[in-house]
Amino acid sequence: MSEHHQADSSATTPDDGEPGFRPRSVAAVPLSEIAEVLGVTVPEQDSGGGVTGISLNSRAVEPGDLYMALPGASRHGADFVPQAVESGAVAVVTDDAGARQLALAGEQPVPVLIVQEPRTAVGRLSALIYRSQPAEGGHPTLFGVTGTNGKTTTTYFINALLRALGKTPGLIGTIEILAGGDPIPSLLTTPESTDVHGLLALMRERGLEAASMEVSSHAISYHRVDGVMFDVAGFTNLTQDHLDLHGDMEEYFRTKAELFTAARARQAVVTVDDGWGRQLARMADIPVTTLSTTPDDVEADWHVASVASQGLGTEFELVHKDYGSLRVHTGLPGDFNVANAALATAMVAASGVDLEVLQAALDQHDPFTVSVPGRMQLISTAPAAVVDFAHNPDALARALKAVRSAEEGSRVIVVFGATGQRDQGKRPTMGAIAARLADVVIITDDDPHDEDAAAIRADVLAGARAAVEKEGLDSEIVESHPRDEAIRLAVELATSKDTILVAGRGHEVWQEVKGVNLALDDRVELRAALTSKGFSVSTDQRIES
Questions:
Q1: Sequence ranges of the binding site
Q2: Which of 107, 87, 98, 90 is nearest to 9 (CA)?
Q3: Burial class of residue 317 in the structure, from the number of CB atoms within 10 Å of its CB (0-12 exposed, 13-18 middle, 19+ buried)
Q4: pLDDT-based confidence at residue 276 (cuts at 50, 70, 90)
Q5: Is the peptide bond before 367 cis (omega within 30 degrees of 0)?
Q6: 317 phi, psi to nearest 5 deg
């Protein structure tokens, strides 16, 4: 799912403040305590009733809420104070601009607290109001996973391993949110900080013992995890992505590295397969356990050894330099799933689980053969047809390598595009990667957003065609749109020995074009096209990330 920043507080995610994101019971926090945290004076009209919730979205305010009226990209949250108050807001926090706006509108019926940077206070206030991680304990052990690729699968792996250990875990991530009840669809990789703290409090209220959370660079940049303390933070890798936000890889790395500080995490497990991971392990100011998936890298605290294929998946040994080893299996293809499984195991071990207990859970429950929607989701086996979220150069390369069959005469047919209004520099790179690693490259639309779809395709096509010409490749490059037609074309071209990879959108069910959401699920389209041509559709939901 493409990250986006909803700066306008009236237009934050529809999930913001939904009942499913809040605990049932919240003890009222006196406004004086909130004012003390902000370093401001309590307004004279304080009713003394206290605050029982917090919201960035005037439409999601509940009685007793503190409404955070933040500056937005197009409008100021102060515009929506009347709606917030009507819905039950008992106080407002805003900046100088918002306060001037409210003053011009006349006297307000609720106290208004004014701070210079209200956005930076949202996390602290959410933690205070919801008591999401109280000092006296009793809250879930929290695992946070960041990196470019593998975050989703690693959090699902952690969740599955925790269940295998007999715990009741929660999950906060790209696809869904689990807080002990029914799954809640997720619109952002990491929800707003009001929701994060509400969810953590809800998990505590429901008696959940642990939770795993994806932590995107957007979440750190936009203060969505402010006030959250992770018991174990994990790092997967860093490759080109989101440079539209960060500008360059160094800034992207610095943003990720903020998670590995004493203000945000107690300890970390860092994969050191790339230079970024090694740099992070050196500079983090918290205890770091290092992990290498390179068999001969015995300098790392944990390293992967004795890797052997087992069906679609892999059996391997995870060796600690001091404390012994674990036998680990993942039923999912690709070396990156070995890395994901190793990181999940090392993070749970770092939380204090005994290795013998871990081994028993791994042996008895096979937790790393788990379904993650849209992450190398197998749709059919003849041809092999797979849907994956790979939407950046490294992820696309890994996915294409993972699906390549050793069967003679088998081809790889890939369908993909690039997202509009995002990191234009990776488009030709992805085109070139597809030309090198696939036999048939069908370039189509992803989510164009407000950008011209043909121009996006042209950028990707240019990279693919340049690679074919300069490197003497024999891959076939095809442009096809709209996306459903491109998927049907891939199936028409395929034989039962081939592999079709539909990449870029994974679990997403809407395609945004010029502000309009069009219903489009790659899995549905691929199943329909395969069935129409007479191929059998698989019910196997094995995945990778």
A1: 56, 58, 147-153, 189-190, 216, 224
A2: 98
A3: middle
A4: very high
A5: no
A6: -110, 135
Q: Which helix (H) or strand (E) holds 144?
A: strand 141-146
Question: What is the edge-to-edge ordering of all strands in the sheet holding 384-388?
Answer: 377-381, 384-388, 499-503, 412-416, 440-443, 476-479
The token pair at 207 is 């008696």
From the list 321, 394, 393, 348, the residue with the least C-alpha distance to 234 is 348
The pTM score is: 0.81
Label each residue of 424-482 as H, E or C.
CCHHHHHHHHHHHHCCEEEECCCCCECCCHHHHHHHHHHHHHHHHHHHCCCCEEEECCC
Amino acid occupying residue 294: T
Phi, psi of 451 (to 5 degrees): -90, 155
CA distances from 329 to 119, 237, 537 (A): 44, 21, 26
Helix (H, G, I), strand (E, B) or coil at 278: helix
User: CA angle at residue 146 from 177 to 445, to 5 degrees?
Assistant: 75
Residue 503, phi then psi, degrees to nearest 5: -115, 155
Q: How far apart are CA 11 and CA 76, in angstroms?
A: 10
Q: pLDDT digit string (tens) for 454-470?
A: 999 999 999 999 999 99
Residue 129 CA to residue 133 CA, distance in Å, equals 11
Binding residues for ATP: 147-153
Do the strands 499-503 and 384-388 form a parallel or antiparallel pair, or are they unpaired? parallel
Query: CA of 90: how far to CAs of 30, 51, 84, 93, 113, in Å?
Result: 11, 7, 9, 11, 11
Q: What is the pLDDT of residue 181?
A: 67
- Sign of CA pseudo-dihedral 540, 541, 544, 545: positive
Neighbour count for residue 105 (Cβ, 10 Å): 12
Q: Which of 267, 219, 237 is nearest to 151 (CA)?
A: 237
Mean pLDDT across the stretch 31-55?
87
3-state class of 393 per DSSP? helix
Main-chain phi, psi angles of 289, to 5 degrees: -105, 125
Instruction: Identify the bridge partners of residue 501 per DSSP, sorted by sequence position.
Output: 386, 414
Give every CB contact of residue 352 below 8 A, 6+ residues apart in sequence.
none
Longest alpha-carbon distance in the chain: 80
Rg (CA), the chain: 24
More confident residue, 443 or 181: 443
